[in-house]
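Could you help me review a protein record that somebody else here produced? What it holds is a sequence and that sequence's fold in token form. I need someone to confirm that the token line plausibly describes how this chain folds. Take the sequence as given and treat only the tokens as open to question. This is what I was given:
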Amino acid sequence: MLDPPSSIGELNTRAARWLATVVDPRPHRVTGQPPAARLLRERPLLAPLPRVRYDTARREPRVVPRVPLVEFDGTCYSVPPEHIRQVVEVRLPIGATTLEVWAAGGRIIARHQLAPAGNRPVWDPAHKQAAEQLALRRHQRPPRHLELVDPPPPCLADLDLGPGDYQVATPDLKARYDLDGGGSA
């Protein structure tokens, strides 16, 4: 009988010795081969584990509409208005209470505490202020010198009629639809 190990290092040493002397040389019940021999054959087929830890977070893409809010589980959360019409990723790590919004390139652009489904929109004060300023700018009239003027209709001299094109007389709609009221009914 063995005494309890004095450290983790001693326990690891004992486990390695037990694997090498008891487990690895014994033929497996299903394959009929010892695990050590099987590992030698299968090692070339095995790939290393990824260098980056697997991300278990719930991740969902969203397109930011004209109002810079993205919906997640029935509640809307704000994002900076400069991301309107862009694809962002809404990310919720397992067990977390903070929702993250990521832009392209792996940048976090917003963090919000989770709110119950159906809650009013959750706004970051900076996002709300920027969205309000953007909305106000959209509704202001442009300076008079920048207002668009309808271009004049094309002059007949400006039309370039080619073969197969016909110059048609302007119809007299007044006469055609009896807009004078003088026709017979």
Remarks:
- The helical segments are 8-23, 35-42, 125-139, 173-176.
- The first strand starts at residue 58 and ends at 63.
- The chain has four helices and six strands.
